[in-house]
Amino acid sequence: MAFSRAEAFAPATVANLGVGFDIMGLALQGMGDRAIVEFRGAPEIVFSDIRGDGGKLPRDPALNIAAVSARALLEHVGESRGLTIQLFKGLPLSSGLGSSAASAVVSVVALNKLLGEPFTRRQLLPFCLEGEALVSGYHADNVAPCLLGGIILVAGTTVEAIQPLPIPDEFHLALLTPDVPVPTDSARKILPRHVTLQTMIHQTGAVAKLVDALHRRDLAALGAAMESDRVVEPARACLMPMHKEARAAARQAGAAAVFIGGAGPTLCAICDSAQVAEATARAMQAVYQAANISGISQATCVDQCGAVVLKAD
After folding, report:
1. Which of 16, 86, 125, 151 is at 20 to 30 A from 142, Cα to Cα?
2. Mean of pLDDT values over 115-140
3. % of the chain exceeding 70 in pLDDT
4. Are residue 81 and residue 161 in the same domain, yes or no?
5. Are 116 and 242 found together in one domain?
6. Residue 95: its pLDDT value, please?
7. Which residues contact 194 (CB under 8 A, 6 or more apart)?
8. Is 199 a catalytic residue?
9. Which residues constitute the domain of residue 231?
10. Is the peptide bond before 265 cis (omega within 30 degrees of 0)?
11. 184, 266, 280, 300: the active-site residue
């Protein structure tokens, strides 16, 4: 059954999980983007409204992630009609919470519903990547968990390369997003171009330990693996003010580990209960408040559903 109007939601995500640069990500309960998509007679894609972006996102469909992803799906199915999109950004830009991935995913999921859902969620991955590539290149560490939910191992950009990982019992997160934008391209430019063989061996071992800890549902081992990065987080720490102080406060509140969400500046703490997560979120926020830096803190869990259609008619 096809529809003329569909509304969808796509959750926030965090990528890398410490040592899993560009190959791991997870979806978060709570925050996310919404989009309402409708067919129009003319072939163009137009935005009737974009809210929550502070006027920063381009209205030009050739430059907007949501439109580029939707266009990829329209062209794939040979659909000549265009779209009217209303995009509601619930995620701050350049925050490390997968804002660009959410824009890509939410428009594609809504459009897939308009078309009568000819594709499974996994099959929508290539279309979402077309939009994400505008700002982050072709990698699915945010797109895959946003689309599918859960904790995802991303070994490439094809559907076959996406592997869900176990979610430990009592896996909670505390997040702190300081009001210090960190564009993804800036965070990538600061990374080292070369690493030593010894460092590479350490990194691959740490990723293996992280995957093993997830399968054994061992939060202590998971935290140790997440915090053992010797390449990406050390290079990016300078972009995150109060990084060391916030990590120390989180540890004191009971967190098992703290890692930088994606390109940052969001800090993510792994906790073993909702109570510890809430206390950790407050502790990290207090660090930034003391430094007169505003920010958003929250306690949350892994979103196991991913993007969802809210309604269609």
Report:
1. 86
2. 89
3. 99
4. yes
5. no
6. 86
7. none
8. no
9. 172-301
10. yes
11. 184
- Check 7, 130, 132, 227 and give the catalytic one: 132
For residue 277, what is the domain's CATH number?
3.30.70.890
User: Among residues 269, 166, 267, 253, which one has the least CA distance to residue 218?
Assistant: 166
For residues 70 and 201, state if they share a domain: no
What percent of the chain shows pLDDT beyond 90? 79
Identify whether residues 78 and 123 lie together within a single domain: yes
Phi, psi of 102 (to 5 degrees): -65, -40
Angle at 63 between CA 61 and CA 64, to 5 degrees: 65
What does the pLDDT read at residue 1?
A: 64
The β-bridge relationship of strands 151-154 and 24-40 is antiparallel
Mean pLDDT of all residues in 249-267:
92
How many domains, in total, are found in the chain?
2
Confidence grade of residue 27 (pLDDT, cut at 50, 70, 90): very high
- Domain of residue 112, CATH code: 3.30.230.10
Establish whether 177 is a catalytic residue.
Answer: no
Please indicate, yes or no, whether residues 208 and 254 belong to a single structural domain of this protein: yes
